[in-house]
Amino acid sequence: MRITQEADYALRIVYVLAGAENIMDAKSIADAVGVTERFTVKILRKLVQSGLVSSRKGASGGYGLAELPEKISMRRIVEIIDGPLEISRCLDSSYECSRTGHNKKCCTFHLVFDKINRSISDKLECVTLDSVINDSISVNEILSKI
Amino acid sequence: MRITQEADYALRIVYVLAGAENIMDAKSIADAVGVTERFTVKILRKLVQSGLVSSRKGASGGYGLAELPEKISMRRIVEIIDGPLEISRCLDSSYECSRTGHNKKCCTFHLVFDKINRSISDKLECVTLDSVINDSISVNEILSKI
DNA sequence: ATTAATGTGTACCAAAAAGGTATAGATTCG
DNA sequence: CGAATCTATACCTTTTTGGTACACATTAAT
Question: What is the average pLDDT value for chain B, to the nearest integer?
Answer without folding.
Answer: 88
